[in-house]
Write a structure and sequence with these properties.
This protein is of the alpha+beta class and 158 residues long. It contains 6 helices and 7 strands; from the N terminus they run H-E-H-H-E-E-H-E-E-E-H-E-H.
């Protein structure tokens, strides 16, 4: 739980820096000292201002994260963390990260962002994320796209 004297904005950023991306429900549980409507309005405003990023995850809701660091901060970030210079693939479907630093059994592995950050001793702001999809989400997106195109073809034209 975050201290009461922090502003909602500061608290949101602190939680996301510590945990990485999370759902709105998870964020609400971690910031229980603020009303849900205040948190929701703050997330909405901060995402419109580009301070937070919202990813829509089909059938699961929204995932909230901090944006990738800007190029101006990149030099400083690279000196702090040796892994910072290599982009990390971020699944826009489920929020998992691809572990190419220390892959399990020599194969890349998609894992929960918090698990990834803990494993490598990183913070969310250290990562240079590139949007991608993990194999399971890729299959879901392909199936959804196929169904949508079939539905469009079956619709009668007016």
């Amino acid at each position: 739980m975050e201290p009461l004297n922090d502003t909602v904005e500061d608290t949101l950023v602190n939680v996301l820096q510590r945990t990485g991306p999370c759902s709105l429900d998870n964020l609400m549980m971690q910031i229980s000292n603020h009303d849900w409507n205040v948190i929701f309005a703050t997330v909405d405003r901060m995402s419109r201002d580009g301070v937070l990023v919202l990813y829509r995850i089909p059938r699961l809701g929204y995932q909230i994260s901090l944006p990738a660091p800007h190029a101006a901060n990149e030099k400083a970030a690279n000196t702090v963390n040796p892994y910072r210079c290599a982009p990390v693939r971020f699944c826009v479907g489920c929020g998992y990260l691809c572990d190419e630093i220390e892959p399990t059994y020599g194969q890349t592995q998609w894992m929960d962002a918090h698990e990834y950050l803990t494993k490598h001793g990183l913070r969310w702001g250290d990562l240079d994320r590139t949007s991608d999809t993990c194999p399971p989400c890729s299959r879901v997106f392909q199936t959804t796209a196929h169904r949508t195109s079939v539905e469009r073809k079956e619709m009668p034209s007016s």
